[in-house]
Amino acid sequence: MKLYTYWRSTTSYRIRIALNLKGVGYEPIPVNLVAGEQRAEGYATLNPARGVPTLVLDDGRVLTQSMAILEWLDRTYPEPALLPDDPFERALVQAAALGLATDVHPVNNLRVVQRLKQMGHSQDETVAWMNDWMEQGFAAFAALIRPDTPFCFGDTPGLADICLVPQLYNAHRWGADLTPFARLTEIEARCLALPAFAAARPEAQPDAN
Amino acid sequence: MKLYTYWRSTTSYRIRIALNLKGVGYEPIPVNLVAGEQRAEGYATLNPARGVPTLVLDDGRVLTQSMAILEWLDRTYPEPALLPDDPFERALVQAAALGLATDVHPVNNLRVVQRLKQMGHSQDETVAWMNDWMEQGFAAFAALIRPDTPFCFGDTPGLADICLVPQLYNAHRWGADLTPFARLTEIEARCLALPAFAAARPEAQPDAN
């Protein structure tokens, strides 16, 4: 399959980790978000939201939206499982992951930063905007995961870890103060020690610059 | 079960619709977001993200994040189904719903509007911010759903319709131009003719004012 991806995209990073964890090979196709390639008409027919990631299956069918792709991957390639089977336990993991996917990432992504700058905000004001949402979001995330497991919800990484690591990459980039979130950065270090996460890192991508 | 809800909250509205469609009774507990009741310490222990909805089950267990709650409801009360069983078809419905839940709602919710005002933006600038994200989000949504079914993906309402109707309520409130989105407002009218949607409307809630 083909993955339309951008090296620094938080949501592309989630899918790269999951594909690696599942051992599913893919061809990465870079979409340069800073250059606006996601707004080209040809790409927009594949992904009407004009974002990344887009996953094109071997039969040509197309999937978009990272959280939908992650669940599809987990159903299609069940091992190792990214979500528990029990509906309640599953909803707890999804709630933590969705906290980052809805309360942090959308207010902190590239198009919002670009818009704030167009509206005349300084770099300092943009940094404050980013960090305030991150601080609230990471505090909620830390309260929703288990307090004492190697990964967010157990002995192996799952959906919550897959959303956490890319969001922390963005946090480091923006200089967020992560000292109140030692449990999260410990989990991050444990994840990045795994080949599946390490190979998915932005810096390890062919389009990194 | 108990649902912590706010009459005008887009995400609470989603859960009210789903509970009504499933025929699951619940006790609504209003949380006045404008008065900041979601930030009270007692509430934050229930919902660390300090938002609504929060669903408290009869055994006292707590679920947060509307998209996680919706999937839990669909697994726990399978009829009528909100999502198809087929993994690919399921991912298409989720992608449309998540487009609204991640690309529109989080940049258009109350806390972001309050923040823009704190940053000195006028009502006109805030309205332009809201409408630009809505226009992009509704255009993507319209391209992701089926072109010719009574509801977004078939003959009965599902997850995408449950996300669409509350987002359109917000669009009407902010004066968005919906003339390019006739298919969406037609689906909205069809949904609101159903008792499950009508009873979930903001204006029909005990805390409406």
From TrEMBL, chains A, B:
One Gene Ontology MF term: glutathione transferase activity
Sequence ranges assigned to domain GST C-terminal in this UniProt record: 86-209
InterPro entries per record: Glutathione-S-Trfase_C-like, Glutathione-S-Trfase_C_sf, Glutathione_S-Trfase, Glutathione_S-Trfase_N, GST_Zeta, GST_Zeta_C, GST_Zeta_N, Thioredoxin-like_sf
Keyword Phosphoprotein listed: no
PROSITE patterns linked to this entry: GST_CTER, GST_NTER
GST N-terminal domain span: 1-81
Isomerase keyword on record: yes
A GO BP annotation: L-phenylalanine catabolic process
Keywords per UniProt: Isomerase
Gene Ontology CC: cytoplasm
Superkingdom: Bacteria
Family: Belongs to the GST superfamily. Zeta family.
Protein name: Maleylacetoacetate isomerase
Species, as recorded: Celeribacter neptunius
